[in-house]
Amino acid sequence: MSDKIVYFDGCTTFGKAGGNIQVELQANLLDPKPNGSVEVRSEVTARLRCSRAAALQLIEALRRAVDLAGSDSDEAKPVKN
Question: What is the number of other CB atoms lying within 10 angstroms of the CB of residue 56?
């Protein structure tokens, strides 16, 4: 199995089905236009599907990573879905 890097700017959709938690990750992509401007579009970059136990482990890992990163007053506040 090869390692994959998933970059995302937000979580656009979440829910549950068949006992599994589902989360879609979205990234903003920049497309150059012929006139020199840039168009921004959003695209799903990954779909997470996992058990409740795995989701809790991911939440804990992310919480610890955020704590390690410290606070950054320039960071945008998260948006609640």
Answer: 12
